[in-house]
Amino acid sequence: MRRSIATVSLSGTLRDKLQAIAAARFDGIELFEPDFTTARMSAAEMRQRCDDLGLKVELFQPFRDFEGMPQAAFERSLARAEVKFDLMEALGCPMVLVCSNTSPLALPDAQLAAEQLHQLAERAARRNLRIGFEALAWGRHVNKWRQAWDIVQRADHPHLGLIVDSFHTASLKDSPQGIADVGEKLFFVQMADAPLMGLDVIDWARHHRNFPGQGQFDVVGFFEQCVRAGYSGPLSLEIFNDVFRATPNRRIAVDAMRSLLWLEGEVRHRLEQAPAEDAAAARALQSQVLFDPPPVPAFQGISFIEFAVDGTHAENLGQLLRTLGFSFAGRHRSKAVTLFRQGGVNLVLNQQATPAARERFSLQGPSVCALGLRTDDPAGALNRATALQSARYDAPTGTGEQRLPSIVAPGGMVIHFVDDALGESGLFEKDFILEAEAADGGAGLQSLDHLAVGLTPDRLDTWVLFCRAVLGLDAGDAVKFADPFGLIRSTGMADAARRLRLVLNMSMSERTRMAQAAQASGGVGVQHIAFASADLLASVARLKAAGVRLVPISDNYYDDLPTRFELDAAFVERLRAAGVLFDRSPQGDYLHAYTEGYAGSGFFFELVQRLGAYDGYGAVNAPARMASQAQEEQQ
Amino acid sequence: MRRSIATVSLSGTLRDKLQAIAAARFDGIELFEPDFTTARMSAAEMRQRCDDLGLKVELFQPFRDFEGMPQAAFERSLARAEVKFDLMEALGCPMVLVCSNTSPLALPDAQLAAEQLHQLAERAARRNLRIGFEALAWGRHVNKWRQAWDIVQRADHPHLGLIVDSFHTASLKDSPQGIADVGEKLFFVQMADAPLMGLDVIDWARHHRNFPGQGQFDVVGFFEQCVRAGYSGPLSLEIFNDVFRATPNRRIAVDAMRSLLWLEGEVRHRLEQAPAEDAAAARALQSQVLFDPPPVPAFQGISFIEFAVDGTHAENLGQLLRTLGFSFAGRHRSKAVTLFRQGGVNLVLNQQATPAARERFSLQGPSVCALGLRTDDPAGALNRATALQSARYDAPTGTGEQRLPSIVAPGGMVIHFVDDALGESGLFEKDFILEAEAADGGAGLQSLDHLAVGLTPDRLDTWVLFCRAVLGLDAGDAVKFADPFGLIRSTGMADAARRLRLVLNMSMSERTRMAQAAQASGGVGVQHIAFASADLLASVARLKAAGVRLVPISDNYYDDLPTRFELDAAFVERLRAAGVLFDRSPQGDYLHAYTEGYAGSGFFFELVQRLGAYDGYGAVNAPARMASQAQEEQQ
């Protein structure tokens, strides 16, 4: 299926946009008229440039306020259309999008609208152009796709067809069911996702759309209907997004392509899963060429986390890890890399022994530079990731050393896929000189609960899509909470089995500690790592005895706690004495505490215990932690 | 009237907030409970700190989900209240805000709500505390102030009264009419303004409130009702605003105080204007102490614009001004300051001969450092400005030189108030050695149309309020338009006579040229200056002949223009040949063009002609200009 994107979806001048679109390997574009009107480039130059870049101008858009007009206005619009048809011919563009009328002059008369569109199509036919009619969600009389389809059917002209856009349908909570029956009169498909918002639909549409897989609409169900209609392309994105408009366009264009590949893969998967008696699904699969990425691999958890350090930080961070109950577990056979372990957690300190660690350290100082994810199909994981436009990472590997399939996540962190068959330590047996297991069990930290990634605002949608498309994680609800210097927006992403949890945090202010850390890490950085204990109060007692400093929590928090939850007074006093935070959901409880920040870097550790099926991350307590950190800094 | 502000309105830790609030000369605070819960400061310390700063804790808030509950939940809430009463006693806080219940458990039973609030008031009375009941706009059964008032009346307890908040009333388009009759049961008044938005009321309330005078609500009408009720304070602000949370709190606290002073002044003015038979107005005026600032002065226009330059820029900018048709008109008697004139426009080039020019030049290079506004009451203008918390600016003045009453506008630009009696050049006769008037009439630029000020997002509301409160300007509708690298939001501010027009521009992206200029100028900088011509096409012809380079406009713009407006083809070709942009409103037409940016600085000039009563600024054409500027930079 040919893939296309509207020029309005990207930042930059029209020249820039075309280059970014071509570089992301799109086949064509929708030309958003204002991009052309303001460009100092003639139609002939534009056509030549697109030819040179291998792009086709698939659609010219939008042509507004046309159908259902009083006669005088209608005639003016026909004259206006001829001017645009001239332009389309010069551009080599075969189709124009007519969006439903928003003018107060528009008449509520479907038959009139059909007759006027018929006349327009007749004029288009003379030049062998085509008209696609689309219901805008805020059209005056036509705002559902079925209304537009009714008018297209009444008009009954071979050069007139229907355009559908997932945004306009989903934003009105309208169903796409039935688009499958439109058949060959489905002329063009525009896909957009969006977060659910209580915002009027025009503002929502003009500022907050995003790429399929970044929002909360059922874009897969929508596109499935189009495929079942026999629609064979272009598959196109029309995304009005304030952040995308303000972000370098090369990155956004990669997200755009990833979103379409993911969408095609998801719809293909659904059709393949359809019951045998669903002949339409089989037909659709046979007649269309939908992208076929390798399936999402199952992850068994995080195998290891690797920090980029220098000699001093290897010493200091190693010392901190020891106080946290980790043991020195081994040293790499050929590189300045050490391993610390506790329970099932492996932490690797890499003294810039690889290019990735070197680069990360030089940019950010001590920080997480890589993750290892355990999966039973590392090669499949790599293949899916690269199929979905992730860059492959080929680490230099010494003779006889373990070679891991690896990719670069958006923003530069390396993700290694580790064969689950190697078990918890098998990975390290080959490359490390391992020490004997420590006997004392450390501080009772048994596993990695989650990783919190701090992102600048222009990276959040990128990461949501990366996690969903490449890693197969689902997004929880976004929550907002207050840092003393601005709001933070947090979204948990996890696999269905809850073996892999990432929390994506974005600061809505530039002045929070989190924003400054994310900025300093080039837009993406691991902010904290949460370790799980089966008895957090006991673990905290041991850690405190070992000299670990936790972020102190206000006494006022504990005075307030019993007014929020029915808790045993003695238990509250134990929490207070330990400085442990508490949250409760209908599914279970969550106890957690934070270590103070590691000197010379933004990151810190969280210690957590989940009771029952608590599935969140204690966001309600984040303000207590952040306010406390801010107060520390003032002292 | 005592003035107060909720701690949630400002950024920072609680300690910071209290200091900023005291520095802005508030009398008290509303303590937003989460600010206390997360503070590492006991109630006793908090009380002491407030005492030291001269602040009273006027209100503890919010106490949620209380009234109209089933018995078990009600009893738990009473126990919860006792814990908060303990805290209020420790804080020395006399009143708690109970906001209407949002719980799904709440019963639609006003009598039950009244009985439960009566019991709460009874308990409060034992400690001599008071309960204020407020209708939240999203309360489950109670969301209008009249419903809350009905319940307060039914409960009939001396320790229970009504709290009103302009946001909750205006956001529901409810009328404040009748609050005047609440009388002494009006226990507390919270004021908030907001932009009109098609956003659900909770998100609107939690993220987009702003200070009175910064938004679009009728805050004056609302507060007038409270004053007529005999309410004598505190007058308090409760503002949830994402930008304020992320902005240094000292600046925001100054805006907060300015907004209250303005609000009191406006209400006083209304009451003073009330007809003689309105005895209530007279009573309210006598019984209350409302702030009484000097009236808004009338402005007759901009007397002069002053640039901070060095010797090189004095030369280069002077040369540019000459090509724009300005004549060298004189030299300051004692300072390195020159004057250029054309029509009624005076431009002053100040070679860092004053501290303000020196400071501005060192921070921003060549840029506008001062404005002179013509008014028939310069002293009154100064007194109003300082009464509304503007800093006075005392320029060093040589013997016998003209001394101008002056202030510092937010962000550092100096505004001088120039006596209109001096006429167009009288101001300069004393201080300058003037040249004879040039004979050729220049390029036909006759007056200053408007000044466009580029602002970082944290400065916009500050400037809207400054323009409204200090200068008496009204805000037009905000418009958004697209730069190639993000959206720009633009608000025109003008006096009723349209003699003084400022356009406040803010970039919603950090990557636009405008954002970068605003950032580089410390958050506030004049972006361009628009000169008016009575015959723009003739002026442009003369300017082009003189070698002035205008921002070139795409041919595509002119191809499109006749599809947008009914225009004579020959006229469109004249616009095209001149590179002049066109806009039309029902009131009239607007022709305009832009000069290329002055080298080494972000600013440029606009040349405009208003036909009929066109009242805008050609925002629809801004994308053509900005795209063209971006394309220039790429070449």
Automatic annotation (TrEMBL), chains A, B:
Q: Where does Mg(2+) bind?
A: 450, 528, 606
Q: Residues in domain VOC?
A: 301-420, 447-610
Q: Is Mitochondrion tagged as a keyword?
A: no
What PROSITE patterns does this protein map onto? Answer: VOC (PS51819)
Alphabetical UniProt keywords: Lyase, Metal-binding
Q: Which reaction does it catalyse?
A: 3-dehydroshikimate = 3,4-dihydroxybenzoate + H2O
Cofactors required: a divalent metal cation
Entry's EC annotation: 4.2.1.118
Identify the pathway: Aromatic compound metabolism; 3,4-dihydroxybenzoate biosynthesis
Residues reported in the UniProt entry to bind a divalent metal cation:
134, 165, 190, 238
Q: What function is annotated for this protein?
A: Catalyzes the conversion of 3-dehydroshikimate to protocatechuate (3,4-dihydroxybenzoate), a common intermediate of quinate and shikimate degradation pathways.
Q: Which family does it belong to?
A: Belongs to the bacterial two-domain DSD family.
Task: Output this protein's name.
Answer: 3-dehydroshikimate dehydratase
